[in-house]
């Protein structure tokens, strides 16, 4: 009992002593603040005015404030119930500069993001620990790019205003180069095929390697190549494929590296049973199976299955099931290397379109865009119709970008709103001034070409040109939606004077005046037929030598009037007006000078352009154009209606109108048959930050002009290869090319470089 009483007395004594040293805090003073606000410090304090100050309070405050890393010294005292906190702030950052860093490894954008993420930007409190972490991170970045000898020296200076400046001087050293690279374990593919999947590897031919830097080691590139290797096998049916070992052996001087990959292909899987589950609605398993590109017994190809999911999805969205969900369950048998597929279909509700809005069209009228949209308010949703709509709007050429946003209507699970967002682009050209062209010489030009006149979608073409070769005045107007069904009408008048001698063809002059009217109708959503009737009066004056030696019959003729009927069939599925990456554009054009007037001849032209995506951002283009011209009714084809070739719109690398047979004076004679074809590989400029309006291409042009249709020979062909650059500049489209002929004949006129430019508004 006595022991218990003694313990209670001791506890009471300690409690009374503690209370004796606890005083209420009436005020808090914070001394020494410069960059940090009083409110910030108060928010971290474990006490506030009115709390008791005891023997443990000081240590708690110091511990909490040190954790903020704002201060390098803290002193806490209490005097007359006033809590006094005296601090010395850590310096705040004036700047953090990187010196001698490679933009390829560490560009300015990356630096700014890293500094921001680590709170090492201007005005932030300097933290030495964070700086050391930054240096470690930068070193890791360099090492991952193959710079194993990188060294970073830090220089820290604090000025008299307690501001710290940090300089990180980077000595990169030489990048590690790949000495050898091997892939072992493949049974179905050659090692060379697999190594081609990697951007890095053993060095190419030394001159090529200088540009490709193929032997520059990068762990990022190696990992990307391994992923490409896995995708290659898995997408080919080898689902058990593994990279079992990756060895990277660095030389002692850290300048060379040997890479060895060991792989295990596994078995090739085929597709077993294919069935369907869920709610297939009105579609039978048989009809769904017909939609698939994969069949039982085929090799399991992931890309094909992903494509077939989209095919089934599209089949249901066409019926209005906008939010249909299609899941594929795979059941694999490792013994038989067979995979069974089950397509589970969850159609959900049919969806109707509530509202269609168009935004971003500051100049183009809503109706111009709306008439290209194949779905209607109140109608069923159709994914394919909307894809076609976006493609049609892009093909107008009025907008640089077209996107569509879908939003659900509140309180209605079966209704959606569609918003087409467009970005206007320059659709017209206005030219005034003096120019020089390889095709027409020096010219004074004044003209307006607008394919979206006053935002109506109508086309206005008005131009006046006065050059050494051509003097022309013309006005044309076209309404592509003359009727609600998409019928178009066009009409215009013109006057044109041509001096053939200035066009490097022959010594003659033509003065032609007339007018035309045309009408077109759509056959399908991508196909149109247009007819045109052109009336003109033409005066032809021949030079003495030309009249006597070369074309005496035609020059002596009194033919003047011409009535030409033109029929044109066109098909267009291009995905973009300016820079297409997919689709075709085909046309067939027949022009006949009718016998009710003086001239009698016909021209038949066929052309085709194809665009196909080759790799990421790379487009492959093929183009072909064939023209045939003949007179009829015992009448010769007029010499000024013959085909000519050479120049920027024909076979580049050869002078304008220089191909084909020549007169004795060396001038081009032209021909009745024109054959042009070519291929191009097109890419945006990846080394330019924003190359949306720029394209670079490598091309091969092949073509020729034959004097007679059935006398075409290989000796008539010319060919060239080169590079071309196109830029939609603020002042108009600029194009230039450099070409070198590799198939030519003695006496050919060549031209290796040319450029054109216009003014847009």
Automatic annotation (TrEMBL):
**Limits of the POTRA domain:** 23-90, 269-348, 351-425
Q: List localization entries.
A: Cell outer membrane; Membrane
Record carries keyword Glycosyltransferase: no
For biological process, the GO terms are: Gram-negative-bacterium-type cell outer membrane assembly; protein insertion into membrane
Instruction: Report the leader peptide range.
Output: 1-22
Q: Say if the entry is tagged with keyword Signal.
A: yes
Q: What is its main location?
A: membrane
What keyword terms does UniProt attach to this protein?
A: Cell outer membrane, Membrane, Repeat, Signal, Transmembrane, Transmembrane beta strand
Please provide, in alphabetical order, the Gene Ontology terms of the cellular component aspect for this entry.
cell outer membrane
**What interactions and quaternary structure are annotated?**
Part of the Bam complex.
- HAMAP family, sorted: OM_assembly_BamA
Per the record, the similarity remark reads:
Belongs to the BamA family.
User: What the protein does?
Assistant: Part of the outer membrane protein assembly complex, which is involved in assembly and insertion of beta-barrel proteins into the outer membrane.
| Name of the protein described by the UniProt record | Outer membrane protein assembly factor BamA
Which gene name does the record give? Answer: bamA
């Amino acid at each position: 009992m006595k022991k218990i009483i003694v313990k209670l007395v001791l506890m009471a004594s300690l409690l009374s002593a503690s209370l004796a040293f606890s005083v209420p805090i009436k005020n808090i003073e914070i001394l020494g603040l410069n960059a940090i606000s009083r409110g910030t410090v108060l928010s971290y304090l474990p006490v506030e005015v009115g709390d008791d100050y005891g023997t443990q309070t000081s240590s708690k405050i110091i511990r909490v404030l040190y954790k903020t890393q704002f201060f390098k010294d803290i002193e806490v005292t209490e005097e007359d119930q006033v809590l006094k906190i005296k601090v010395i702030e850590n310096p705040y950052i004036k700047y953090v500069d990187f010196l001698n860093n490679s933009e390829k490894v560490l560009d300015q954008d990356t630096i700014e993001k890293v500094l921001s993420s680590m709170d090492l930007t201007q005005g932030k409190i300097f933290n030495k620990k964070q700086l050391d972490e930054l240096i470690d991170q930068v070193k890791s970045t360099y090492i991952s790019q193959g710079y194993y000898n990188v060294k970073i020296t830090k220089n820290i200076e604090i000025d008299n205003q307690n501001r710290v400046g940090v300089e990180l001087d980077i000595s990169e050293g030489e990048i590690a180069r790949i000495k050898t690279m091997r892939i072992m374990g493949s049974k179905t593919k050659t090692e060379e095929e697999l190594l081609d999947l990697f951007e890095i590897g053993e060095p190419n031919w030394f001159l090529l390697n200088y540009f490709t830097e193929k032997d520059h080691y990068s762990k990022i590139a190696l990992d990307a190549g391994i992923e490409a290797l896995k995708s290659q096998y898995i997408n080919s049916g080898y689902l058990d494929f593994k990279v079992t070992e990756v060895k990277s052996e660095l030389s002692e001087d850290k300048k060379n590296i040997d890479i060895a990959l060991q792989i295990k292909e596994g078995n090739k899987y085929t597709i077993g049973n294919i069935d369907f589950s869920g709610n297939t609605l009105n579609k039978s398993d048989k009809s769904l199976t017909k939609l698939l590109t994969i069949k039982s017994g085929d090799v399991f190809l992931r890309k094909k299955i992903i494509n077939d999911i989209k095919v089934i999805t599209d089949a249901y969205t066409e019926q209005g099931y906008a939010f249909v969900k299609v899941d594929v369950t795979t059941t694999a048998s490792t013994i038989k290397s067979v995979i069974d597929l089950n397509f589970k279909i969850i159609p959900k509700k049919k969806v109707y379109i509530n509202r269609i809005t168009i935004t971003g069209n500051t100049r183009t009228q809503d109706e111009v865009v709306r008439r290209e949209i194949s779905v209607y308010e109140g109608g069923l949703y159709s994914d394919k119709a909307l894809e076609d709509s976006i493609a049609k709007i892009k093909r107008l050429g009025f907008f640089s970008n077209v996107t569509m946003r879908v939003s659900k209507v509140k309180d209605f699970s079966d209704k959606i709103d569609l918003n087409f967002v467009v970005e206007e682009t320059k659709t017209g050209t206005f030219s005034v001034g003096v120019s020089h062209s390889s095709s027409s010489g020096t010219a004074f030009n004044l003209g307006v070409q607008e394919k979206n006149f006053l935002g109506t979608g109508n086309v206005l073409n008005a131009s006046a040109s006065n050059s050494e070769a051509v003097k022309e005045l013309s006005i044309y107007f076209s309404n592509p939606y003359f009727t609600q069904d998409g019928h178009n009408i066009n009409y215009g008048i013109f006057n044109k004077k041509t001096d053939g001698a200035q066009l490097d063809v022959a010594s003659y002059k033509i003065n032609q005046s007339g007018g035309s009217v045309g009408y077109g109708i759509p056959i399908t959503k991508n196909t149109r037929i247009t007819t045109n009737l052109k009336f003109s009066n033409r005066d032809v004056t021949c030079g003495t030598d030309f009249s006597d030696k070369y074309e005496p019959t035609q020059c002596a003729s009194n033919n003047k009037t011409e009535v030409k009927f033109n029929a044109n069939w066109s098909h267009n599925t291009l995905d973009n007006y300016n820079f297409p990456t997919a689709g075709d554009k085909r046309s067939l054009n027949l022009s006949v000078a009718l016998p009710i007037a003086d001239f009698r001849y016909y021209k038949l032209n066929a052309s085709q352009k194809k665009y196909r995506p080759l790799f990421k951002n790379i487009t492959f283009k093929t183009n072909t154009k064939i023209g045939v011209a003949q007179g009829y009714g015992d009448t010769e084809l007029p010499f000024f209606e013959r085909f000519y070739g050479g120049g920027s719109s024909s076979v580049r690398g050869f002078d304008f109108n220089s191909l084909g047979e020549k007169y004795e004076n060396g001038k081009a004679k032209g021909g009745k048959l024109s054959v042009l074809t070519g291929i191009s590989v097109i890419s945006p400029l990846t080394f330019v930050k924003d190359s949306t309006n720029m394209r670079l291409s490598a091309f091969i042009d092949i073509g020729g002009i034959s004097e007679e249709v059935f006398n075409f020979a290989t000796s008539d062909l010319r060919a060239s290869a080169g590079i071309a650059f196109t830029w939609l500049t603020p002042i108009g489209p600029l194009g230039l090319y450099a070409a070198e002929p590799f198939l030519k004949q003695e006496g050919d006129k060549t031209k290796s470089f040319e450029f054109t430019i216009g003014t847009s508004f």
